[in-house]
Amino acid sequence: xxxxxxxxxxxxxxxxxxxxxxxxxxxxxxxxxxxxxxxxxxxxxxxxxxxxxxxxxxxxxxxxxxxxxxxxxxxxxxxxxxxxxxxxxxxxxxxxxxxxxxxxxxxx
Amino acid sequence: xxxxxxxxxxxxxxxxxxxxxxxxxxxxxxxxxxxxxxxxxxxxxxxxxxxxxxxxxxxxxxxxxxxxxxxxxxxxxxxxxxxxxxxxxxxxxxxxxxxxxxxxxxxxxxxxxxxxxxxxxxxxxxxxxxxxxxxxxxxxxxxxxxxxxxxxxxxxxxxxxxxxxxxxxxxxxxxxxxxxxxxxxxxxxxxxxxxxxxxxxxxxxxxxxxxxxxxxxxxxxxxxxxxxxxxxxxxxxxxxxxxxxxxxxxxxxxxxxxxxxxxxxxxxxxxxxxxxxxxxxxxxxxxxxxxxxxxxxxxxxxxxxxxxxxxxxxxxxxxxxxxxxxxxxxxxxxxxxxxxxxxxxxxxxxxx
Lengths: 108, 352
What we know:
The structure holds 2 protein chains of 2 kinds. By secondary structure, chain A is α+β, with helices and mostly antiparallel strands. Chain A is 15% helix and 24% strand. Chain A has one domain (2-104): Ubiquitin-like (UB roll), CATH 3.10.20.30. Chain A has helices at 27-33, 69-77; strands spanning 2-8, 14-20, 55-58, 85-87, 100-104. Chain A has a 5-stranded mixed β-sheet, covered by helices on one side. The mean pLDDT of chain A is 94. In chain B, 22% of the residues lie in helices and 28% in strands. Chain B has 2 domains: 2-121 and 251-341, FAD/NAD(P)-binding domain (3-Layer(bba) Sandwich), CATH 3.50.50; 131-248, FAD/NAD(P)-binding domain (3-Layer(bba) Sandwich). The model of chain B has no long low-confidence stretch (mean pLDDT 94). A 5-stranded parallel β-sheet of chain B has the order 6-3-2-10-22, covered by helices on one side. In chain B, helix 5 (161-170) packs across helix 6 (190-201). Chain B is elongated, with a radius of gyration of 24 Å. The interface between A and B is medium-sized, with 19 and 25 residues.
């Protein structure tokens, strides 16, 4: 099934999009598939939690999976980090994320 | 002036394999890379991560893949200009190109193959006011000569291997080493973490965590920094330092290549899918750095692109020569070092 996401891009535009839950995709990949950020500025490491180019701020109250050690460590070295920062590549699309609202962090 | 047949910009897996395919055609290669070692992202970002889609390798660590490629191309004796970024390109009257690095090293070749991946890796810079003013004036992102820090007061920021390793190294060189990190936890090799712990216990490294540098000051050069401790009661500490070394990793930027007059789309170089040539004849782009309809950024696609690029390069260099591709199983591999690898001859013997 598809879920609805509300994503604010780096220019401030809000996109309401459908994301599949059955294609093993994460949030970074969904953003890339809709080209909400220019290629080459997001998902640089491919989704290994090693570059923080997919950092986003979670705006809704969804319960997200706990951060892994890798994600914690990467966020500790990234810039523009806020309390609600997450790496998009570590958020897998599941049905309970329906209605998730996020904002992409600035490019750094 | 370094001269070669194919000048490859970027020593990642695609650039390295191009050396092999060129070698089979008796073409010599030289590689330029901004990083101090070959391997590109595979060595720099994820050497210990497994890759599962290299044909013939059910599983291989990225670092091992690079080691294997280096072994595979050894007999073709490629040259390397490492730790330098290709900066400018100039076309000569004879049709060849001269590529100059940021350090002034010049390379000349009739063919340039850009295998630059996502671009050259540049240090990630902290977001601080007046940062530019102190760059190379107290702030360094890369340690070139550790002696610069002899008997100086050095502050290192970061939580990865390079922050740990340089803190350990400079503990014996600098008069004082201060290590600042946003968290108490460090992401590095276990023995590095333990070494820093022991140097801290001996008073040789001053550790300030969880904290970060929030301001810089100094008239001509950097003289002091403000550090904000992120404990329950936020407190600011001012520390006089001679050097501040932020080590927050590297991020790739297309960089000067973007100004070479090549057609760029989506931060990548447009090529045709016949021979992966760009809009400038003689300049090719292979691997993650290029784009075309249906492009996939996969190492295995880079290998294919490198192979076709070499065939086209050969035709450009020797327009009058006829050539048919020969299988390595048939022709073997003859290195420029005189080595020869070939299939053992079958034994022909009658059975009575």
